[in-house]
């Protein structure tokens, strides 16, 4: 059967592919009804010539009409885009806005392909575009294929959330969502998946705000939609350093996730364990024995032991970027949170252990509070930091080698200081575009080059210990460098899966 409109459309797409005109390409791919008249005619031809059971013929039609690869040497392949276009034809051919569940499934398949293409920038480089800013003509932020798809789905979500027909509460006579409100969480979850993939948390925040203001209660929707939404809500709070809120959302998602959905439960559990670790609550042994927790014990348990023991040396090594597990933590985007937020727990445990060994227990009869000598904490912390940096104990009679710069953590300001030029080095030719040897930033002219790594001092130990305890239970004892040691950890309630560290 002849399909003149489809043939014309493919001809225009092929021309745009050869011209590498991504802006016009995006204008051609309409996703949302109502369709323009020519698109209605093209949809009619697709339904007659290429019904659902002839999807292979539609793919073959696209392959024959579009260039297979980019012209010129080193040109990339258009195979993935041709597959994408055949999916697009299938989508507009079969979509029925009155059947939101079927529409959701088709959008999910289409957006899954969009994420796959976004991971291959070499295949979609010619389809991305930069929009000119208003009036200036300057290029704005590049919009990726996945982000563009998310923006399209967000419009569908807005229409679902802004439904005004029916009851003002959005519920029918049986207390269930009605009208387009049925698709609120279907569309929201698709948007959140793409926004998290693109690292666009600000756009995800808009989704959460609209749901809070306009959506019926989450409990009225299916478990799969609830679990997915709570997972992304937990991820959002985690990314914004609201770890208690993240733990609440992730725990609810984990409890409601089906036991056979092992992959989804594992995703939730990784962030749930991390959130609880930062709050000072560690997984119990039986949590690691579940199928979704396979391999997690080897990642998290050494960190939990280091935190509970106050082992600053082990904690530094486990969170080092060169540690074998660092790539795994970076993949899940939790390494920096663990490094920065769990360090305070290590110091708290270190202070408690030091107090148990050398602290003054006080005298309740004479109303003398237990005290902790900060010099003891400084000695232990310095020893552990040196071990973490690989610095061996040295003899006091040794030469100035103790002032050499060791490998490991160094003072941040040292990156602004360049080594001085040796005396026997011939003068270099002046070049305004290059910095001379021994250059020091003018703001750092009075700065003294640090003699070694950034080791603890009495001031840093005092400020750290003061920040650990609750203010109402801490008293500084003058020049004795002692602190009243009453209550190093706030009270927390454990549960079936986690316990206090």
3D architecture notes:
The chain has 501 residues and is mainly alpha-helical. The protein has 21 helices and four strands. The chain has helices at residues 4-19, 22-28, 37-49, 55-65, 79-94, 100-118, 121-124, 145-161, 184-198, 201-214, 223-239, 243-256, 262-278, 285-288, 296-309, 312-318, 326-331, 335-341, 343-358, 374-389, 458-468; strands at 281-283, 371-373, 482-484, 498-500. A two-stranded antiparallel sheet has the order 1-4. It has a two-stranded antiparallel sheet with strand order 2-3. α6 packs antiparallel against α8, α9 (184-198) packs antiparallel against α10 and α11 runs antiparallel to α12. The radius of gyration is 31 Å and the shape is elongated. The termini are far apart. Mean pLDDT is 78; it is low at 129-139, 396-417, 471-479 and 488-493.
Quick take:
The protein is an all-alpha fold.
Main β-sheet description: 2 strands, antiparallel
Dominant shape: elongated
Contiguous runs where pLDDT drops below 50 for at least 5 residues: 129-139, 396-417, 471-479, 488-493
How do the strands of the widest beta sheet line up side by side? 1-4
Indicate the mean pLDDT.
78
Helix content: 40-55%
Q: Order of helices and strands, N to C?
A: HHHHHHHHHHHHHEHHHHHHEHHEE
Number of helices: 21
Quantity of strands, as a count: 4
Percent strand: under 5%
Using only CA atoms, what is the Rg? 31 Å
What oligomeric state do these chains adopt? Answer: single chain
Q: What structural class results from the helix and strand content? A: mainly alpha
Distance between the termini: 71 Å
């Amino acid at each position: 059967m002849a399909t003149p409109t489809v043939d014309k459309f493919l001809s225009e797409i092929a021309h745009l592919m050869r011209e590498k005109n991504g802006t016009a390409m995006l204008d051609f791919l309409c996703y949302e009804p109502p369709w323009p008249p020519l698109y209605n005619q093209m949809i009619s031809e697709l339904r007659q010539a290429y019904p659902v059971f002839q999807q292979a013929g539609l793919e073959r039609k696209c392959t024959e009409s579009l260039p297979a690869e980019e012209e010129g040497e080193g040109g990339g392949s258009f195979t993935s885009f041709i597959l994408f276009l055949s999916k697009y034809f299938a989508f507009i051919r079969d979509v029925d806005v009155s059947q939101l569940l079927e529409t959701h499934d088709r959008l999910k398949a289409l957006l899954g392909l969009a994420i796959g293409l976004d991971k291959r920038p070499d295949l979609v480089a010619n389809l991305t575009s930069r929009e000119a800013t208003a009036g200036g003509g300057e290029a704005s932020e590049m919009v990726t294929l996945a982000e563009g798809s998310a923006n399209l789905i967000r419009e569908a979500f807005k229409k679902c959330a802004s439904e005004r027909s029916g009851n003002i509460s959005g519920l029918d006579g049986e207390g269930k969502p009605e009208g387009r409100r049925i698709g609120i969480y279907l569309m929201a979850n698709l948007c959140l998946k793409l926004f998290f993939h693109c690292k666009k948390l600000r756009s995800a925040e808009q989704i959460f705000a609209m749901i809070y203001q306009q959506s019926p209660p989450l409990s009225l929707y299916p478990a799969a939609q609830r679990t997915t939404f709570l997972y992304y809500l937990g991820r959002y709070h985690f990314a914004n350093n609201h770890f208690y809120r993240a733990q609440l959302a992730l725990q609810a998602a984990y409890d409601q996730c089906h036991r056979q959905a092992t992959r989804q439960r594992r995703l939730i559990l990784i962030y749930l364990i991390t959130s609880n670790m930062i709050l000072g609550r560690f997984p119990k042994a039986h949590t690691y024995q579940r199928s979704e927790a396979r391999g997690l014990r080897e990642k998290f348990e050494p960190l939990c032991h280091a935190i509970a023991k106050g082992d600053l040396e082990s904690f530094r090594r486990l969170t080092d970027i060169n540690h074998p597990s660092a790539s795994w933590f970076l993949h899940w985007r939790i390494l920096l949170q663990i490094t920065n937020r769990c360090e305070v727990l290590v110091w708290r445990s270190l202070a408690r252990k030091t107090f148990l060994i050398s602290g003054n227990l006080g005298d309740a009869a004479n109303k003398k509070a237990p005290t902790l000598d900060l010099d003891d904490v400084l000695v232990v912390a310095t020893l552990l930091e040196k071990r973490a940096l690989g610095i061996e104990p040295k003899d006091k009679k040794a030469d100035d080698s103790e002032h050499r710069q060791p490998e490991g953590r160094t003072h941040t300001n040292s990156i602004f200081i360049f080594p001085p030029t040796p005396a026997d080095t011939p003068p270099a030719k002046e070049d305004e575009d290059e910095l001379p040897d021994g250059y020091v930033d003018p703001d750092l002219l009075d700065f003294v080059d640090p003699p070694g790594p950034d080791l603890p001092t009495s001031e840093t130990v005092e400020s750290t210990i003061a920040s650990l305890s609750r203010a109402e239970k801490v008293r500084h004892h003058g020049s004795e460098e002692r602190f009243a040691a009453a209550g190093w950890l706030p009270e927390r309630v454990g549960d079936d899966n986690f316990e206090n560290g």
